[in-house]
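Example (one chain per record):
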Amino acid sequence: MSITHVVATNPVSDYELVGAGIDHLSEIHDALLYTQLFRQMDTVSLEILAEYLTVYKVAAGRPLLKEGETSDFSILLLSGSVEVLKKPPRQNAPRLIATVTRGKLIGEMSLVDGEPRFASCIAGSEATFAVLSRADMLRLLDEHPKLGSLLLMQLISLLSQRLRQTSRKLVGLMASTGKG
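Predicted structure:
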């Protein structure tokens, strides 16, 4: 498989390591019950996926992702809450665009394309989360192609859903300002 690997920031330096994903399988399983993304996976598949995850935690107020930062990993929130903030052009203060809770995935765009982060994510409370790096995603695709392909299709589906939601909001905004 020939996919260019992006040199990324190392999440280990910013987060407190809790352990290997497989050692937190029940927490990962419980969090996944809250999301559509992984509902098609059976227990064996979840166990395999957990082998490619690393679990971390951060205190409230600490950043998980920084807007504009180049990195290539995604985060599955296992507990706590995360505020997603976006700095509008020509403004100094970032604006809250979403609050993410257990079972939600953040950072998936950079996992897929390795581009800089679109928004910042700050822990709204103490948060525990599992990290899937691009390198581990590629390793999963190589070692378990069927599961890796299923995960990629689910990521694509998630990205598509989010793009559709954003497009609907944009159309609504354009209609309300008379620019549509």
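Caption: The mean pLDDT is 84.
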